[in-house]
């Protein structure tokens, strides 16, 4: 029997090309090689367009913002951002990462100029989600008038980070003669807040679906440098600026009181709180004084500039609910304290938040 | 919200406090049984406003504080086991057990989840059929209906992976214990409005008659508290030893019948240990024969629990209203909310926490 010859054919030849992985982040995106390069080109550089970034160096080289570098001072701040969920009513982690650091820089009275950003990404994150976050960062940076000038990405194995962490650093310029810091509150000063307390914390909590009820509250997350510029025009002798983020207004005021070695007396009737936030807090046993804000500032200003300061805040779209919370007073005992004159005329301590904010039982 | 605003109206509260001042002629000792009221009184600064004749002593009505140490240790032991999701009201996580708290269990890898209601724990059990879900069912009469309901639902759904670690306490037997103590100084009670909303106040009638003193059902808003104190002082000044309802918008004498029905279906009365106080006869509820399968103490072998209380903490005396936090040498120094020695410093309803938060001088 004649053996049948098998002639090999090449008509079905195939070379196993690697998949492009352009829908989800894989570990290769953090390898530093071609996939990283592609991710940077397609996701980051389509939104961040500062010339220094486009040069592709591992650094940005910048001119000092003033021709005479000896005038004024630099203000530098850094902040890591973790929020669950990544998108919440009124904002997202990108807007938060830009606003948070812009605000920290601006609270020194500085004009924020530049940002750097590090992205720690969980393997498996949708690239579309990443791009949405980056787009939001670019939009917020433009709104704040700052440029993203350097960045980095790392990809971590699934489960070792939760979706996406963003760390940002900011650089700003404090004009000559401006001294705004936590040590500068003085007895007799007025304590102002730029709007209602607790919007961000309750909005995020509600979005997590943990409250058992829904709300219409939006996070207040926003860059505040524009409003600060207006405030400082009206009240140039402002002593302290600070954003009451984690720990809320109560914790932030306690920090300032301790730094400046003064006490503070707040008026309960003056505390601005949205009705929905108040209602959510009542149900959970939370106090709005301890709930996080991401788009509010506390300002300690000399009594003589109180009215101008309030008017300047209220004239700005982010400050229309601005209020005078109380006054800086001398402290009587050994420790500086924040006190509250209650609605019904009693007086009590407003302490710092201790540990995690926990809902009550009944 | 307008409703709440009315009950916080400074003018109405001031007028009510003025009425108290007008009728009071001698010193009186009043106990507010509920930790929520202790906090509300301090949060609104009542201590500055009430006449000096009134001494408010703070009762044991803090669910977290009175949960027995061995049960917390059992909870910690269960939460450390693999394939367990331990669900708890948030306040419970920071309470010190003998060695550690639930937060440290979570930090060490235990699956401890904060829930806002027991129904949420039930949902976790449905979503995780391969895990045992244990809910820490603690509290007074206020939490009992929802806790009981979750077990009823679990039985209906034939859920084999849900159980409860139960420490359910009742107010009236605790009042009896306080009044029976030879050191008792309490002359009148503010009865907790929320507890009475569930249970009504018929259980308090025999207490008023037997111990010859007024008990006034009181709410939680500033005006409610002022009205409750006013009615107590009025009764004391007039020698009226009866139960008065100063919270009629929330409470009727028989309470919430359907809530009570659920409690009766699931629980039975038992002698109950109160942390810092001791065992009080008939002061608790445990799962009845129909529901013992859902008792985490039967489902998990947590072995012999050796408990160890702090030697300096006087929370027992605080809970009985016999000492004030300022009388404790550890208060605000060794013992703070960040580093609590006893449960009264932890809970949002604990007396020491209230003093620390609002009143530290």
From TrEMBL, chain A:
Similarity section: Belongs to the HypE family.
Name this polypeptide is given: Hydrogenase formation protein HypE
Domain PurM-like C-terminal residues, every copy: 187-331
Pfam families for the chain: AIRS, AIRS_C
Domain PurM-like N-terminal: 71-173
Organism: Anaerolinea thermophila
Listed InterPro entries: HypE, PurM-like_C_dom, PurM-like_C_sf, PurM-like_N, PurM-like_N_sf
GO biological process, one term: protein maturation
TrEMBL record, chain B:
Segments forming a coiled coil: none
Keyword list, A-Z: Iron, Metal-binding
Similarity comment: Belongs to the HypD family.
Protein's name in the database: Hydrogenase formation protein HypD
Biological process annotations from GO: protein maturation
InterPro entries reported in the protein's UniProt record: Hyd_form_HypD (IPR002780), HypD_1 (IPR042243), HypD_2_sf (IPR042244)
Keyword Electron transport (UniProt): no
Gene Ontology molecular function, alphabetical: 4 iron, 4 sulfur cluster binding; carbon monoxide binding; iron ion binding
